[in-house]
Amino acid sequence: MSDSTSSASIYHAYQGNTYLFGGNAPYVEEMYENYLANPGSVPDNWRAYFDALQHVPATDGSTTRDVPHQPVINAFAERAKLGTMRAAPSSDADSELGRQRTAVQQLIAAYRNVGARWADLDPLKRTERPAIPELEPSFYGFSDGDLETVFNTSNTFFGRDTMSLRDLLNALRETYCGTIGAEYMYMTDQGQKRWWQQKLESARTNPKLSTEQKKHVLERLTAAEGLERFLHTKYVGQKRFSLEGGESFIVSMDELINLAGTKGVQEIVIGMAHRGRLNVLVNSLGKMPADLFAEFDHTAPEDLPSGDVKYHQGFSSDVSTPGGPVHLSLAFNPSHLEIVNPVVEGSVRARMDRRADPQGKQVLPVIVHGDAAFAGQGVVMETLALAETRGYSTGGTVHIVINNQIGFTTSDPRDSRSTLYCTDIVKMIEAPVLHVNGDDPEAVVLATQLALEFRMEFQKDVVVDIVCFRKLGHNEQDTPSLTQPLMYKKISAHPGTRKLYADKLATQGLGDTLGDDLVKAQRAAFDAGKNTVNPVLTNFKSKYAVDWSPFLNKKWTDAGDTAIPLAEWKRLAERITKAPENFTVHPLVKKVLDDRAAMGRGEINVDWGMGEHMAFASLVASGYPVRLSGEDSGRGTFTHRHAVLHDQNREKFDEGTYVPLQNVAENQAPFVVIDSILSEEAVLAFEYGYASNDPNTLVIWEAQFGDFANGAQVVIDQFIASGEVKWGRVNGITLMLPHGYEGQGPEHSSARLERFMQLSADTNIQIVQPTTASQIFHVLRRQMVRNLRKPLVIMTPKSLLRNKDATSPLSEFTKGSFQTVIPDSKDLKAEKVKRVIACSGKVYYDLAKKREEKGSDDVAIIRVEQLYPFPHKAFGAELKKYPNLVDVVWCQDEPQNQGAWFFVQHNIHENLQEGQKLGYAGRAASASPAVGYSHLHQEQQKALVDAAFAKLKGFVLTK
Predict the structure, then answer these.
(1) Residue 271: strand pairing partners
(2) For FRET with 705, which of 176, 437, 716, 904 sits at 20 to 30 Å CA-CA?
(3) Which domain of life is it from (predicted)?
(4) What whole-number distance in Å separates Cα of residue 20 and Cα of residue 12?
C-alpha cells in the first residue's frame, strides 16, 4: 500500500469519527471561528450547517449570530452520536468537492496548530523532522493531481481569497515551518489569535530588513562574539558563562530596546541569570568594557562588606533610542536562577504605580531564561500565575529563552523535562510562543518585533525562544564533551552565527570585507576598553528616578517620632470605623467597628487590630503609601484585621466592598491590601522587588502562618538578608509572620525565628516580637518615619490578637515610641530582686501569671521586643536597676535549639556583672518545632514556665 493510500485511509477513518474529539476538535472550532468572522470563508455545506446552528439557543436564550461556542459544541456532539455530522451532499461530485473544501480548512488549521513541529529551529540539525500526518496533504486524501485545484482561502491572510493547493501549501510551510515556529492556537481569545494569523501570514514570517538594518545586525553579532572571544583569550579559565553559540540574543535585546523606545516605553527592567549576563552588561546596557575588565583583574573598588561575583551584579543606564531615552535596569541576581523573575515584576509594578501607568505602557519587564530553568524551576509557574491578577499585573512580560538545548550542565534531553518544549509552562496563561533558530538573526529580529507588538497591544506575556547552542561548557572550566561527545563534535565544526551571517550578506552584495572590518573595529574598541553601545546617555535623569540618599548610612538607634496627636488619633479613628450609608456590614464585623470606635474615643483599651489600623491610617494620611499582601490579608488570617468590608446584600466585588483605610483623608496616599494567590516564594519576591524600587511605601508581606515563610526561604536568604552587603541594595520590606506556641502542632507554631536570627549580621535586618497593640503601632510607623530602610521581620502573635492583657491605653499611642525592651511593669523593690527573667513574645503573659500565682516579689520580668539588632543599652540599663541581681534566665516557648536562645545568650552574657549567672528555661532540643498533641503541649508549657522560677540547672553561664 502506498504512503498516499495509507494516509487517505487514515483520513477517511478519521473523518468518519466525531469531529469533536482528538486532534480534529481544533479544526472544527477554527472553522466555526472563521465562519463567525467571514461566512464566505468556509465551504458551502459547512456554512449551511453553521447557519442552521445560529438558531441553537444560547445559555441566555438569545439567538444572535455570534452565539457562544458551547451550544455549538453540544450540537456537534449530538449530531456525532446520531452519525449525521456531515451535511448530505446533492451528488457524488458535490460530495468530493465538499470533502476537499473541508479538508483544506483542516489543513490550514493543522499548520496553525502544530506547524511549529516542522520548523527549522536547530542550528546543529541534530534531529530529524518528526512524522506528523496532519501536515501532509495525503492525510486528507489529496494526491499530486489535486495540487493545482483552487480553493477558497479567504480565512487566511496570504493576500488572496483563492489559492491553488500547491500555493497554499507553500505559503503555510513558509509561514509556520521556516526558522520561526509559532504557537498561539491554544489561546481562547479570538481577537488575539486572529492578530497572530494576520501578522504571521501576511508576511509569511519572512523578515524584511533594509541594508542598514542588516549591517547593524551583523555589528551586534560581532560585538557579542567579539567580547566573548576577547575575554576567552585574555582571562583564560575564569568563569564568565559565555554566550558563544547564542549571540543572536544580543540582537534580540538590541531590537527590543530600540523598538520599545519608539512605542513609548521609558523604562525596561531586565532579569536574567548567568548565561550571557556579562555580554548584556556591555553590549546592551553600555557598561564600560574597561570596568568589566577591572573586575576580572580584581582591581575594581571593593566598597561593600561582602560583595558578589561579577556575573551576579546589576547595572543601570540610560540609552538613546529612536523614540527617546530609555532607562535600563538589570536586576541583581543570586545563583538561584529564576528567583529574580518575581523581583523584576515587583520592581516594574512599583515603577508603574509611581508613573500612574496601570497598563504598563511606559515600563516593560523583560525576563531572560535558560531552557532547563524555565521548565524546571517552580518559581516560574508561581510568577506566571501572578501575571493576570490585579495586585501583581505588570501589563505583560517579554520572556526570552536562551535555549542551548542541553540544560543546566550535561542533561540528556530525555531527562531535562516532561514537556515537548521548555516553554510549555506558559500555556497555563495562554502566552504565545515564538520559537526561532538562533542561526537566523533576521528571524530573531522579526520574532522580537512581533513579541513586543503583541505585548504592547494586549498587555499579555509573550515568549521568544531562541534555539541555539552553548559552544563551551556550563562554565569555562567545564568539559562538556565528556558527556555530550556527538553534540560537541557538531558544535566544534560550527563556524559561528556571526560568520554565517557575514557570508550571507556578502552573497547579497553588501561587501566581502564587511564582516572582517567589523571584527577589527570591535577588537580595537575592546582593547581600548571603550563603550560598544552608542549612545549611552550620561547626563540624563528622569523625573521618576528615586533618590535613595536620605536612607543611606543611617543609624538604627534613631527611634523616630512615631506618636500622633490626640486630635488626629480621634479624627482617623472616626474615619476608619464607619461604613457608607446603605452598606450592610456583617454583624460580627459591625461589633468590631463599634468596639474600634470606642477605642478611638478612649473608652476602652486599644487592641492589636486597631493598633495596626491606626498605624496604617496615620501613615497614608501623612503621605506614605501602604501596600499589604498575603493570603487572607484583607480579612486577616485570624479575622482580626477587617481592612476590607463586604456588603452582605451585594456579591459583586467592585460594588460590594469598602476599604475604610482608603478614605481617611482627601489627599491621602494609597492604601492597597491584596489577598494574594496561594504562593509564598513569588509573592514575597515580588514585594521585595517592589520595596527595592520604592523606599517611601510601607511594603508588607504577611504569611498566613509563620511557617509558610519556609516556602520563600530562597528570597529571605538570597535577597532580604544579604542584598545590602552583597549589592548595596537598601530595602525596607516588612514581613509579618504569625508565631506563637498555642498547641496547634509543629507547623503552625513557629515562624522559624532561629533562621532569621542566624541570618542577622552587619545590622542587616530588624527582628522584633511585639507584645502589645501600641508596640505594633509604633514599630510599623517607625519603619517609615525614620530615614532607615532595613528589612523588618515581625513575629506577630495569634492569641494576643484578642488577649485583653495585650491591649494598650490610648495614651501609649499619643506619646512614646517603640520600646526595644519593656521593663517590668510591676511595682517591685529593686533591692529585693534576685532574678530577672528575660523573654520575648507571648510567653511573657504566662510568666506574669505564674508570678502572680506564686506571689514572687524577687523576680523581675523584662521583655526583649527587638531581638536584632540587640538593644544592649536598653537591656543593660534594666539589669543595672537591680543591685542584688544573681540570676538571669532566658525563657522561651521554642525548643532549646530553636527560637532566640543560642543567638541572644552571648548578648545577655555581655551585659552581666561579675558573679551573675545566665540560665535557660524552655523546651528541650527537638527536631520538630512543636508537639502535635494538645495535652503534651500544655504539660511542656507548664514545665518551662515553672523552670523559669526554679533553681538554675542544666545550661548555666557565669560571668
Answers:
(1) 367
(2) 904
(3) Bacteria
(4) 16
- b (16+ CB within 10 A) / e for 406-436: bbeebbeeeebbeeebbbbbbbeebbbbbbb
Helix (H) or strand (E) holding 52: helix 44-53
Burial of 136 (0-12, 13-18, 19+ CB in 10 A): middle
Distances (CA, A) of 65 to 36, 69, 159, 522, 700: 8, 11, 27, 62, 50
Residue 675 CA, distance from chain mean position: 16
**Judging by beta carbons within 10 Å of its beta carbon (0-12, 13-18, 19+), is residue 34 exposed, middle or buried?**
buried
Using left for φ > 0, alpha for ψ between -120 and 50, and beta otherwise, residue 276 falls in left
CA pair distance 392, 689, nearest whole angstrom: 11
* pTM across the whole model: 0.90
Mean pLDDT of the chain: 88
- List, in order, residues 6 or more apart from 826 with CB less than 8 Å away: 848, 851, 860, 861
819-847: average pLDDT: 96
Distance, in Å, from the CA atom of 527 to the CA atom of 536, rounded to the nearest integer, reads 19
Q: How far apart are CA 574 and CA 560, in angstroms?
A: 26
pLDDT, tens only, 284-295? 999 888 888 787
Alpha helices in 244-402 (DSSP H): 248-262, 277-283, 289-296, 340-355, 371-376, 378-386
First to last CA, the chain: 96
Residue in this structure with the C-alpha cell 520538630, named with its chain if needed: 928
Q: Which residue carries 526561532 as its cell?
A: 436
Phi and psi, residue 689, nearest 5°: -60, -40
224-299+307-513+527-534 and 821-958 agree in CATH topology: yes
**Domain ranges (residues) in the chain:** 3-177, 224-299+307-513+527-534, 566-814, 821-958
Q: Are 730 and 788 spatial neighbours (Cβ–Cβ below 8 Å)? A: no
| 41-50, 449-458, 507-516: range with lowest mean pLDDT | 41-50
Distance of CA 428 to the CA centre of its chain: 15
Three-state SS for 495?
Answer: coil
Establish how many alpha carbons lie within 13 A of residue 368's alpha carbon, considering only the half-sphere containing its beta carbon. Answer: 26
- Span 767-801, pLDDT tens digits: 999 999 999 999 999 999 999 999 999 999 999 99
Residue written as cell 543595672? 880
pLDDT tens digits, 412-442: 667 788 899 999 999 999 999 999 999 999 9
CATH superfamily of 224-299+307-513+527-534: Thiamin diphosphate (ThDP)-binding fold, Pyr/PP domains (3.40.50.970)
Spatial separation of the C-alpha atoms in residues 287 and 277, rounded to whole Å: 11
pLDDT reported for residue 302? 67
CA dihedral 730, 733, 738, 739 (to 10 degrees): 10
Distance between CA atoms of 425 and 381, rounded to whole angstroms?
7
For domain 821-958, the CATH architecture is: 3-Layer(aba) Sandwich (3.40)
Grid coordinates of 499: 560568520
Q: Check residue 471 and give its pLDDT.
A: 82
Rounded Cα–Cα distance for residues 7 and 141 (Å)? 7
**Residue with C-alpha cell 503601632?**
777
CA distances from 622 to 355, 529, 575, 662 (A): 20, 49, 15, 13
| Mean pLDDT, residues 277-283 taken together | 91
